[in-house]
Amino acid sequence: MGMSMSGLKTMMAADATPAWNEAEAAAIIASHRHREGPLLPILHAIQAAFGCVPPEAEPLIANALNLSRAEIHGVVTFYHDFRRKPAGRHVLKLCRAEACQSMGGEANAARLLATIGLDWGGTTPDGRLTIEPVYCLGLCATAPAALFDDMPVGRADAARLEILVQEAA
Amino acid sequence: MKIFIPRDMAAVAVGADHLATAIAAEAQARNIPLTIIRNGSRGLFWLEPLIEVATAAGRIGYANLSVADVPSLFESRFFEGGPHDRCIGVVERLPYLARQTRFTFARAGVIDPVSLDDYRRHGGYRGLEAALSLGPAAIVAAVKESGLRGRGGAGFPTGIKWETVARASAPRKYVVCNADEGDSGTFADRLIMEADPFMLIEGMTIAGIAVGATQGYIYLRSEYPFAIRIMNEAIAIATRAGWLGRGIAGSRFDFDLEVRVGAGAYVCGEETALLESLEGKRGQVRAKPPLPAIKGLFGQPTVINNTISLASVPFILAEGAQRYAGIGYGRSRGTMPVQLAGNIRHGGLFECAFGITLGELIEDVGGGTASGRPVRAVQAGGPLGAYFPPALFDTPYDYEAFAKRDGLIGHGGLVVFDDTADMAKMARFAMEFCAHESCGKCTPCRIGAVRGVETFDKIAAGIEPEQNLALVRDLCETMKLGSLCAMGGFTPYPVLSAMNHFPEDFAAKPLPLAAE
Question: Options 3.40.50.2300, 3.10.20.600, 3.40.190.10, 1.10.4160.10; which CATH number does B328-418 get?
Fold first, then answer.
């Protein structure tokens, strides 16, 4: 356990995401714990601060909400959004749902993944880019759709995706 | 001079922000005083980015613009409605828009979504004013009389749900908006929240008054960052103006509202999974009964409605239940915002009375496929909806008529596929999606979906195709009858419809000659 935690810290430092900070995490938890059903807001806020929900956060949240660590872990791992380790500096989410499939989204995605040498969910060795699937962005009339960090991309043909990826620094 | 450039996520996805920046810069360079209003989208997505200019003749549109068009737009004095290659004339006269019956989406794309004044000027809060003068019991009666049915897909009468919650006595009640619009091919909730957020706030407030709830939550999916931002902004504005909080609009009613962001689980669109998620748990489905109307969020009586259902309420109260119930087809009253998506030429939102046929929607309104190839299949109602072949295009858009043809209208999405679609692949995808998104609570869904994928892989590999196809049918029967919710229970719709209408795609394919 100690080893995996220090390993995680090294990786987080390499990725230039904020290192684990217990005081900051405790402050985040305290700012939400008075709310009804505070767990999802807390997890979102922790991930916004640390780039993921670090394992160290789980016992802290469990204590604050008077739940078991297993319950917190169960929630973190249930939802696709919560990461166990930080993503690359940029995240490209490609929609794999039906409307985007009908416009050739799968072929575009396969080509892009092959070009960069990544599988779904993978991150480039330089930590520059993570590519993830998403199931519907609600951009189904301008398909295929993607989300590059916070920027939505419609009519995302293969050429447009490659330009995006090349420009990601 | 007023220029409207949408801030809608789909418009921005095809360049609306770049366009707004370029137009502002060019106006400044030419010393032309323009007021740029970032409106919502009209929902005519195939025309985006679509900008509009207010003129004496009405709002003139310029469609499918890119930054490269900006100098020529100024040369042709677009800001006065001047002629240009991209000019499409008065937007409201476009047949696509003129043919619609926009009850719920009347303001979409017209107003500045975060301007309360704009909202008021366009009829906003007239529904709430009517509701306050009617009182709780008469509000419920009006919603019942309107015939409004749950627009999330189940089609349960909204007024009856409200009545149940109103009759329950409890220390605290809730109104929850299901804005976890996860179905591929749907974007009506997103459009409501990005184009006319006060309408949703108004609808939820009316629900709160009707049932005696003082707290509302909008469970909004994380995949909709624009809607989250706009909704939060609108709630803050409404609260400051006294339309939310204590003593709404000077009345004796209190109602607070908060956005809660989902975390990427499709199954949380199922109402009981959504409630679990709001409570901070894994999004696992609850067994019913008890109904959420009796024991919902935190065990309290809860109105949980889809975004469109709640957004339809202000119109019903403002214009009268009869106005809404007066149009429609059979037991499907009022309008439905049909969402034309996927491989379709005129993709967008088309709000119309129930009863229009599927073929009219796809061919006349939608203009057929975007690729120009023949339509092969239309998936109606999201990932859990059936695939319809063109042979069934005479089906009227109506809950019961779709059910009679082993389909569902769901949340109103229609995803079009052209003749290059491989329906065996789509059937496998339906199982794969179910396996990916199953909450894991019941066995038919959790295990059935995985077995479904494996069985389709055997069929594709030519292993005992007939026996395995029979096995898939058997499995579908088990999932349909044995699953706790629509996730496992409705996955058979796309699977069986693909098998029934496109059997040729499931025939054994010759094995590849040389595997490595």
Answer: 3.10.20.600
How many Cβ atoms sit within 10 Å of the Cβ of residue B464? 14
Which CATH number does B116-325 carry? 3.40.50.11540
Q: Flag whether pLDDT at A5 surpasses 90.
A: no
* Whole-number pLDDT of residue B510: 57
DSSP conformational letter for B83: -
Q: Are residues B345 and B361 in contact, defined by beta-carbon separation less than 8 angstroms?
A: no
User: How high is the pLDDT of residue B232?
Assistant: 98
Fold classified for A90-167? Glutaredoxin (3.40.30)
pLDDT of residue A4: 41
pLDDT of residue A12: 42
The values of phi and psi at residue B240, to 5°, are: -60, -35
In angstroms, the CA B158 to CA B132 distance is 19
Residue of chain A nearest B267, judged by CA positions: A79
Nearest residue on chain A to B184, alpha-carbon basis: A136
Is this model's pTM higher than 0.90 or not? Answer: yes
Handedness of CA A168, A76, B261, B436 (dihedral sign): positive
Integer Cα distance of B162 and B167 in angstroms: 9
Alpha-carbon separation of residue B46 from B41, B54, B105, B353, B421 (angstroms): 11, 21, 17, 22, 22
Q: Is A45 on the interface with B (CB under 8 A)?
A: no
Report, as an integer, the average pLDDT of B326-351. Answer: 97
Q: Any chain B CB within 8 A of the CB of A147? A: yes
Question: Nearest to residue B356, comparing CAs of B99, B131, B105, B179?
Answer: B99
CA B208, CA B288: separation in Å to the nearest integer? 23
* Residue-averaged pLDDT of chain B: 97
**Section B367-396 average pLDDT:** 98
Tens of pLDDT, residue by residue over B46-67, are 999 999 999 999 999 999 999 9
The pair of structure tokens assigned to B392 is: 């069934």
The Cα of A65 is separated from the nearest Cα of chain B by a number of Å equal to: 11
The four Cα atoms B368, B387, B411, B113 give a dihedral, to 10 degrees, of: -30
- Reference B61, options B87, B36, B37; nearest CA is B87
pLDDT in tens, B155-201: 999 999 999 999 999 999 999 999 999 999 999 999 999 999 999 99
Reading the block at residue B445, the tokens are 């869904």
Give the list of residues 6+ apart from residue B209 with CB closer than 8 angstroms, or none.
B131, B132, B136, B139, B248, B251, B253, B255
Any chain B CB within 8 A of the CB of A29?
no
- In chain B, what residues touch A136 (CB-CB under 8 Å)? 181-184, 186, 223
Q: What is the pLDDT of residue B437?
A: 97
Question: Looking at domain B423-506, which of 3.40.50.2000, 1.20.1440.230, 3.40.50.720, 1.20.58.100 is its CATH number?
Answer: 1.20.1440.230
Sign of the dihedral through C-alpha B212, B217, B218, B219? negative
Q: At the topology level of CATH, where does B2-98 sit? A: Glutaredoxin (3.40.30)
pLDDT digits (tens, 9 = 90+) for B89-105: 999 999 999 999 999 99
pLDDT at res. B18: 98
Pairing mode, strands B51-55 and B58-62 = antiparallel
